[in-house]
Amino acid sequence: MKTLAAAAMLALAPLPAMAQDHQHMDHGAMPPADPHAGHEAAGEDHSTHQQHDAAATPAPDPHAAHARPMPGAAIPQGTAPPPPADHAADAFYDPAAMARARDLMRRENGGMTFSRWMLDRLEYRTVRGADGYHWEGEGWIGGDINRLAVKTEGEGDLGGPLESAEIQALFSRAIGPWFNLEAGVRHDIRPRPQRSYAVIGIDGLAPYFFEVSAQAFLSDMGDAHLRLEGSYDQRITQRLILQPAAEANIAAQDVPELGIGSGLSDIELGLRLRYELAREFAPYVGVNWERKLGGTARLARAAGEDASVTSFVAGLRFWF
Asked: What start and end residues bound the annotated signal peptide (predicted)?
């Protein structure tokens, strides 16, 4: 037994040395053996190792062929094919009737007549000393390009005379996807003496969804005015909307009989919060501030009026 144990110890003793020698050979000057040689000899599939080797090298740029035309590649020439003449609706409806419908859709005004009438503000105003009312609205009828429009606005004191009221009749034509060019007439019922004006203006939707309007007026007495308006609907929810609005009026000359001085005559700022019970019907509350400036303020003070008025408002906005 002792002899067998000694023989076993002598047989196992060289193994660590042999392992160390094998490690030194890997880091030495001699090139390592091909790790796949054994697989080839055994006839094994080593496609996985080929993929690993390929991944170690950078892949060609997949867009390299798009950088410039391939040699000998010709750019197609000639006319584009005609648009398809068949329509799916013709299989179910009279083709002649569908052709007439498509012709209407291609017409300049869209082939259909629409209309909309909106009273944007119908409100009660609480003012120190006297409460009042105010309205502002418009309506139009026509197509996508050409329309006839009517605008009106005015205000007065409850239980008192009508202070101001005007109505405009305009021809409106779209000059782009967002803006309309307007031209027509305006007549002021109040204040007196009454005036009639020629009107030209532009209104529409500016970037970031600001509704803007600019109108120039020339009266039958030769006085000229400019009105600038803007508003924005800030949706708090799908039904609750906060609307800031601003208006400024500019006069080219003094019109003392109407209480208007030259230059920037007045500005108006408002903030209204409305709740749409339906898209067509929305009550609102808010605050409105008006300020007469320059010669207009001096004429107002001479007539015993305040140059600046702040009022709380409550009203309705509806359309159909």
From this structure: 1-19
